[in-house]
What does this fold into?
Amino acid sequence: LLRRRHHCGYRFGLLVARRFLMSAAKPPSSSPEAKSDDSSASLPTRILRKNVPVTVLGGGTFATALATVFARQGSKVTMYMRNADTVRSINEESRNAKYFPKLLLPRNIVATVDPELAFRDAKMLVHAIPVQPSPEYLERHKKYIRADVPIISLSKGVHLKTLRFMVDVFGDVLGAKHPCAFLSGPSFAKELITEQPTGLVVASDSVDLAMDIQEFLSGRALRVYRTSDVVGVEVGGALKNPIAIAAGIADGMGFGYNTAALIVTRGCAEIRRLALAMGSDELTLAGLSGIGDLMLTCFGPASRNRSLGVRIGKGEKLDDIVASMNEVAEGVPTAGAVVQLADKYEVDMPLARAIYEILHGDPPREKIRELMGLPLSEE
It folds into this structure.
């Protein structure tokens, strides 16, 4: 009886497997629902393959998070950084002792301070260097960067001296044809590492590259959308940081949710004005890289820019706050660049201007009175 049951179960398994293979061989459904699902679209010629070697440039929190995501997808990941102690902790303990001492990283992540070793086998680069030093960093390392190796940028901000976004910085240093993509959206590094459900968006002029990265990174805890609106993604990712400083200032001064909602909403309106003036698609600012990232950065307790604002609101000096931080709050230099961009594109951005003036010494309460006393207008 047992032998007969085993034989029947075996035959049933074969039947199920045969039907599964036959259904998989059928062409995709032509129903409207199937067409609207991004995951059912056939990919063009692949630029990247799963499990390719990836080099992450930087050793900070988000560099570590993306290294972890790639490693869990099967890639050998090399993190290139200058901190020898962090390199040692990653290689010997599978931990980033500086930022995440209690979190165990995948064993297929290694780290090095040697650029020759870091770039040698890389089929993809992940740029996780702050925006302000990025031009000089790329100039110093461009001899190692092969023309056919795509770069994914995690950097959010505007270069203060040149008013250039990262897409422009890459073009200036590596050439306009170098394959680049820009990853953005509401995401704290620790929550990515601990696999909390997260959504991001990747932007690129290359549809093939954007689709490859989308497929490469998406998994059980990360869903990646794609867009060709590089300008919108870059503007949204950069300008949300000064607005988060403003939200933090209000919190530090003791104001409540009414004030926070006012700042975020009007901040979103100013971001939208500038992005449209620069050629962005309006819908991009309504997505993950726009309002999504803005909400997280303004309200999330792990936000560096919001935390900086809270301390300003409580009366601390900016120089003291910056000196005490482990990582860069990009909103500080970006605030100055935003004011210059507003002037360049003739966009009215009173909140952004007030944030810049507070960072340069003006009393927050005075700026609040000025903003609340602006001429009344339509929304």
Summary: The chain is about 50% helix and 10% strand. Residues 158 and 164 are 6 Å apart (CA to CA). The first helix runs from residue 2 to 25.
